[in-house]
Amino acid sequence: MADTLSAVPLLETPRLRLRTVRRDDLAAIYALHADPRAMRYWSCAPWTQAQQAEDWFAQRARQGETEEIWPWGISRIGADTLIGLVTVFAVNRSQHRAEIGYLLDPAHWGKGYAREALRAALAYGFEALQLLRVEADIDPRNEASCRLVEKLGFRREGYLRERWRVNGEITDTALYGLLRRELTA
Ligand SMILES: CC(C)(COP(=O)(O)OP(=O)(O)OC[C@H]1O[C@@H](n2cnc3c(N)ncnc32)[C@H](O)[C@@H]1OP(=O)(O)O)[C@@H](O)C(=O)NCCC(=O)NCCS
């Protein structure tokens, strides 16, 4: 099995490093996805078995072989432990657009880390990948996520009803979009 997911360039922000995800991050990745607080508005139920992290890693590694995907692990400067993930996926080169997803350890919420990490990944997408538009699919009840993307300049462009079925719950999507010229400084 691969030792890493798709290799991504190292991006450094004042407090964070966005780096390639490795097999030795699996325990941290499991802890993130097993935390009900972090998974409240996610597209699957909280994980309950360590094997789910193995399966996730294998599936993501395979996905990286056939699709363009940029999966960054987030760690703090000076501490290599993975505290979150930010992924640019569904990259459509001919249309210059992609989607973004993100997940941060609740122990680190409310410090502006997600904004710092997303801004770096978005800047990379707009500059290096020449994207012109990035989308985020958010549960409208997820206030933290809505606020996060709005502060980065995203606009709420659409409301898609009953788009997800997670753990017996039917949920809607607030579809957000950010154009290259709109990313806030
Ligand atoms: C969404 C998430 C990444 C935000 O991480 P974070 O590091 O706490 O966010 P930041 O500290 O960068 O905050 C960004 C903005 O959101 C606001 N915010 C953060 N948590 C909030 C909350 N619970 N309610 C309302 N606003 C909130 C912050 O105040 C800040 O806005 P401000 O500049 O006006 O103060 C984090 O809550 C998370 O990982 N959630 C679980 C996974 C998830 O839902 N991912 C998104 C799926 S679409």
TrEMBL record:
<protein>
    <submittedName>
        <fullName>RimJ/RimL family protein N-acetyltransferase</fullName>
    </submittedName>
</protein>
<dbReference type="InterPro" id="IPR051531">
    <property type="entry name" value="N-acetyltransferase"/>
</dbReference>
<dbReference type="InterPro" id="IPR000182">
    <property type="entry name" value="GNAT_dom"/>
</dbReference>
<dbReference type="InterPro" id="IPR016181">
    <property type="entry name" value="Acyl_CoA_acyltransferase"/>
</dbReference>
<dbReference type="GO" id="GO:0016747">
    <property type="term" value="F:acyltransferase activity, transferring groups other than amino-acyl groups"/>
</dbReference>
<feature type="domain" description="N-acetyltransferase">
    <location>
        <begin position="16"/>
        <end position="182"/>
    </location>
</feature>
<dbReference type="Pfam" id="PF13302">
    <property type="entry name" value="Acetyltransf_3"/>
</dbReference>
<keyword id="KW-0808">Transferase</keyword>
